[in-house]
Amino acid sequence: MEVRLCRDRDEFAGALYGIFQYFGPPPADDVVDRWIGLVGLERMHAAFEDGEVVGGAGAFTFDLSVPGGSLPCAGVTVVGVYPTHRRRGALREMMRAQLDDVHARGEPIAALWASEETIYGRFGYGIASWCGDVSIPRDRSSFGRPFERRGRVRAVTLDEAVDSFPPVWEALRAQRPGVFSRTETWWRERVLRTPDEQKATPKRLVVLEIESRVQAYAVYKTTTAFEGFVSNSKLDVVEAVGANPQATAKIWRYLLDVDWMATINAALIPPDHPLFLLLASPRRARFKGHDALWVRLVDLGAALGGRAYATEGRVVFEVRDSFCPWNEGRWKLEAGKASRTEEPAEIALDVDALGSAYLGAVSFAALREALRIEERVAGAVERADAVFGWHPLPWCPEIF
After folding, report:
1. Which of 235, 244, 251, 306 is the most buried (most CB within 10 A)?
2. 313-360, pLDDT tens digit by residue?
3. 183 and 40 in contact (C-beta within 8 Å)?
4. Across all residues in the chain, what is the average pLDDT?
């Protein structure tokens, strides 16, 4: 079996079918073209047997916000093996080739959404953030405190959204870890465009303007239904982002007040989203949590040195990383910098556990309680949590 980067459109389409076949027919020509425009031939690996594609693994090129900054990141995507070739090492070889390529490109971290959560830990990825879904009955959508309504919400065209949405998104990136950068192509093709098969429920695009400046936006869809002449319609929030707390509250108030809607649904909401304290009846939102972004530290020194820390404490780690052995060994984190050291380790752990703690959503104390790390010096875990802890929690609002 051979694993290499795709050389032409046909190989890319075959690699894309590695995951697309589980959802339906081979991707149409326009779908392949969109994926090539977003990923590029140079970032799509394919597994071949006797010259035929039997699997694929791609990676977006973007920056990911980390505590106090932003780093180049490989956004791993469309990973799949043909069912005729499962359990034959194709996935492992693609992960090997992909991480070697990520390392050679100088990207300190890789990240993904795991369609199957048991797969990626063996390649060094760790759960690094949490999110969940809400379904809010409109008659239980009141805020718990009086709310000052400011500004105005208005509908915008796709072209207007391409100009006005990105600054709000960048404000979110500056506030929260886990948010990736978007190109204009990404905005047009992935966020704002309504695919042909979804024309019956087109995306609605609105902005909130306060003092003539766009401070928030929302992308949503509505589905109209009646039961016994009573509306049973629903509003599905695709994305709602505010540049500040007032704007976030206002754009959500708009979404919760759209006429005829019986329920307002939203996915990928972080556990510390302000909506839960805005609502008078947060339990009625029926939050259902699950894992979100998984992070892989590809260049451990650059990754640890590329984020900010809550304190200037000092911790010595012994890191195990058999899949990317260049990371293995003892590392001292001190004054925000990571370096190799011969000093005795205070915490021993696998690289996936360190990836879980990296964005600040998973504490070292939780990892210790889950038997995922070994504390060799008393108090080291508490010290590490004081250093790595971060507010707000990471949030990735879009599955990629």
Report:
1. 251
2. 999 999 999 999 999 999 999 999 999 999 999 999 999 999 999 999
3. no
4. 97
- Judge contact between 270 and 241, C-beta under 8 A: no
* Cα–Cα dist 57/102, whole Å: 12
Nearest residue to 125 via CA among 328, 390, 358, 397: 358
Contact 132, 289 (CB under 8 A): yes
Nearest to 352 by CA among 114, 34, 177: 114
The model's pTM = 0.95
d(CA 178, CA 39) in angstroms, rounded, equals: 20
Selecting among 12, 17, 60, 120, the annotated active-site residue is: 120
Q: Under a CB-based contact definition with an 8 Å cutoff, are residues 296 and 323 in contact? A: no
Q: Which of 107, 122, 94, 108 is nearest to 15 (CA)?
A: 94
Beta strands in 229-363 (DSSP E): 230-231, 233-242, 261-269, 288-291, 293-297, 314-320, 329-334, 337-340, 347-350
What Å distances lie between residue 261 and 24, 216, 264, 289, 373, CA to CA?
31, 21, 7, 24, 48
Dist CA 167 CA 261 (whole Å): 29
Burial class (CB in 10 A: 0-12, 13-18, 19+), 326: exposed
- Cβ atoms of 54 and 1 within 8 Å: the answer is yes
Cβ-contact 17, 55 below 8 angstroms: no
CA angle (33 as vertex; 35, 16 as ends), nearest 5? 50
Catalytic hit among 17, 125, 217, 400: 400
Q: Is 229 a catalytic residue?
A: no
Separation between Cα atoms, residue 361 and residue 178, nearest integer Å: 10
Helix (H) or strand (E) holding 94: helix 90-105
Fill in the amino acid letter for 18: G
Contact 293, 396 (CB under 8 A): yes
The pair of three-digit structure tokens given for residue 295, joined into one six-digit string: 């992070």
Written as six digits, the tokens of 226 are: 């009646």
Q: Is 120 a catalytic residue?
A: yes
The CA dihedral of 339, 295, 329, 4, to the nearest 10 degrees, is -110
CA distances from 100 to 8, 94, 111, 133 (A): 21, 10, 15, 35
pLDDT, residue 147, reads: 86
